[in-house]
Amino acid sequence: MLVKDVMNSPVLSVPEGLSLQEAHDLMYANKVRHLPVVREGRVVGVITDRDVRLACSPLAKGTVASPSTPVSKVMSHPVITADPLDPVEEAARTMRTRKIGCLPVLENNQLVGIVTGIDLLDALLKLTGVEKPSGRLELRLPDEPGQLALLTGYLADQGVNVHSLLTYPEDALTVRSVLRVNTQNTRALAEELRRQGLEVLWPPEKPWM
Amino acid sequence: MVPVVYHPGYLKYSFGPQHPFSPLRLEMLLDLLKSLGHLPAFHAPPQASREDVLSVHSERFVRRVEAASQGEESPELVHYGLGTGDTPVFPGMDEAARWLVGGALEAARLVLGGAGEVLHLGGGLHHAQRDQASGFCVYNDLAVAIRHLTKAGMRVAYIDIDVHHGDGVQWIHYDEAEVLTLSFHESGRYLFPGTGAIHEIGRGAGVGRKLNVPLEPFSEDESYLEVFEQVSEAALRWFRPDALVIQCGADAHFQDPLAELLLTTRSYGKIFPLLRQYAHEFAAGKAIFTLGGGYSFDAAVRVWALLYHVLQDLPLPERLPQDWQERWASHLREPLSPTLHDPERCYPEIPRKPQIEQHNRQIARRLLETVHPYWK
Lengths: 209, 376
Ligand SMILES: [Zn+2]
Prior knowledge:
The complex is a heterodimer.
Chain A: H1 3-6, E1 14-15, H2 20-30, E2 34-39, E3 42-48, H3 49-56, H4 88-98, E4 102-107, E5 110-116, H5 117-128, E6 135-142, H6 147-157, E7 162-169, E8 174-181, H7 186-195, E9 199-202
Chain B: E1 4-5, H1 24-35, H2 50-54, H3 59-69, H4 93-112, E2 117-120, H5 141-151, E3 156-160, H6 167-172, E4 179-186, E5 210-215, H7 221-239, E6 243-247, H8 265-282, E7 287-290, H9 297-311, H10 322-332, H11 353-371
Parallel strand pairs in B: 1-2, 2-7, 3-4, 3-6, 4-5, 6-7
The structure holds zinc ion.
The site of zinc ion has 6 residues of chain B, from loops.
């Protein structure tokens, strides 16, 4: 999954001379929290609703900015940006390590979109969530070549469609795989996979049957 | 006597001998009722028309079902949930599914005509969606019946005790104010179709009127009944429907090969009378009962025989007729329970029992907290 798959586009941007009041109103009217600031087509900063509120708050340290202050005085810069072809996990890592809430997305130095924390939550839901009616299989596989191929090959033979597949390391020797498959009859599949020597964690065996 | 809607056309809804949704279950049930001397005069429904089906399904989906039913092959069928392992295509599929829809619709007509409770001895295809077949379900007979009742001005509460989330019925009526849906199921975190979380509460005018109780795997009788009574009574007392539509899937039984809840027949022996009581207390005595999932032949047939006896106020037989048992045990090549009820302690103790009960209690509480602001 790439940044271009989850970013918001087109994106609302503002000139650096815009006042804090206007930026505030624009964010509320459009229900967004981040605005890239643009000079001559180039992104020069990002202003957030938090920047505006803190700048104008009597509780903040230092002088209180007036609502007519230009955003260029308050915005964050230089800007950390993303490329449309960056993988989402790279965007997530950047935002996490730099402690920022959004990344303007640039293509040939032109602003083409923006990725926020909410978009990354959407990506997480898409990767792990239930998008279609499906059953769930969970397996523990040896962390070795060919294990996943064995599993998916078997499912393909059965005509079972895999809607999603998530695999993550469990310890040094094993990985966990969670699959969403287009059948309610996952117990029969699990039984057959066990017969093939795979360790199926879900659905579990019912010892009385 | 509670009218029983049934047509031999129901038996044509069959995905082949290896498929779990087998019409043999219905044949076994009818044969059992006959052996017990209780086979009623059925109320034979007309087959549902294409227009009836279109009251809840999209034209393009119905067109695909019809084409597939005639043997037309097309790679796009899969996008409509057809020709999959769960819902394979069979000749005459459209007609067979319309018999089941016809039954549910006939039950709805009976209720509108003044009947109290009605048993639709089949159907309960709660996974079928507006635009898609899913999980053994082609057309959603329940939603067609519900739509028929709401078009006549009724407010309907749908209760689903199948072990799987009643997703099709929920999504079809998701933004309707006049339909309350209430599904008790094994949590979608573990079981097909994956939905039915407590935060799915409806949309627009329907918000607060779609309720889900996702239960922990290995939930047992007491815990199930506790949350079932708590949530059903709260919801019905508030919603005050004009009629109930109840999907009585039997796959929450501990013997079911597709799921992991552990109900015994004793639960069903309490749930069915409770549902009748709710119908009388909250819905002027009007209720349609349908069958549904249930993939252990032995368990499903006993659960539905129990439903039949409860609805007709018949005394429960302790033992099942010997001739019936022998006939079907040899046909299925598997032993059948000799008694209507499960024996005591029919499965080993569940070590996590206290945590499971605690979890289910909390789910019910959180659900009611979530919808309460909308119950005005
Ligand atoms: Zn079911």
